[in-house]
Amino acid sequence: MAMATISRAQVAPTFSRPGSMIVVDVVGEPTVVVGGEEKPLKLEDRLRAELTFKTTRRSTVAVEFSNGALLKLGSDSEVAVEEFYQQPHSQPGKVAEWKEEPSPSRTLLRLVRGDLTVNVKPLKLARGSSFTLELIAGTLRIREGAVSARVQMTELGIGLCTLRLESGAAEFEPVGGKPMPVAAGKRLELAVEVAARNGAVKVGPAPVEGATAPKK
């Protein structure tokens, strides 16, 4: 057992090198916030992590990551790329043609509001790769596949978090709950309430539309 642990540690990446992103599609006037400065996004802009993408009601943007992932941000939305590290690689060909990520990477996104879709190439999990999407209702850890998510919150701190794994494999850990596998093709809807006094997040099943209160 000890030898196996040492072996895994020897191949684990250090993730000291940032990955890169390139804007592959722009509609309207999306923006990016880097170091507190907000500026317009243009097609083929190349970026590093620790930034935030924003769209208006009439704009969208698609971003390709150097690990093969494709992020599409819907209108009136905001997502923060809080971490994106990747070991160097020299994978040939177009990103869309890759069957898996070319080298180990670690990605952390946080959907602040609105909706996004992300398609993740199969990760090199045995070598330490991870792809995490933070939502106000919890944390989604993606192994591979396509995911769509939406966060809708009111000024009163009440809202809805929607999640769907279109294909692939992932697990979701709700706030205050335990990790659970996400079934491909199943839609997960969670009601969210954020306490104004201390910011505590309460998560529960979304109310069923048209449901009536049980008779006493």
Radius of gyration: 19 Å
- How would you spell out the order of helices and strands? HEEEEEEEEEEEEEEE
- Mean pLDDT across the residues is 89
What amount of the residues lies in strands? Answer: over 45%
| Low-pLDDT runs | 1-10, 211-216
- What distance lies between the first and last C-alpha atoms, to the nearest angstrom? 58 Å
Shape: globular
Helix share, percent? under 10%
Taking the sheet with the most strands, its summary is: 15 strands, mixed
Q: How many E-type strands?
A: 15
Number of helices: 1
Question: Would you spell out the secondary-structure blueprint of this structure?
Answer:
Elements: H1 2-11, E1 21-27, E2 31-34, E3 37-40, E4 46-47, E5 51-54, E6 60-65, E7 70-73, E8 78-86, E9 105-120, E10 130-135, E11 138-153, E12 158-174, E13 180-181, E14 187-194, E15 201-205
Parallel strand pairs: 9-10
Antiparallel strand pairs: 1-4, 1-6, 2-3, 2-5, 5-8, 6-7, 7-9, 8-9, 9-11, 10-11, 11-12, 12-13, 12-14, 14-15
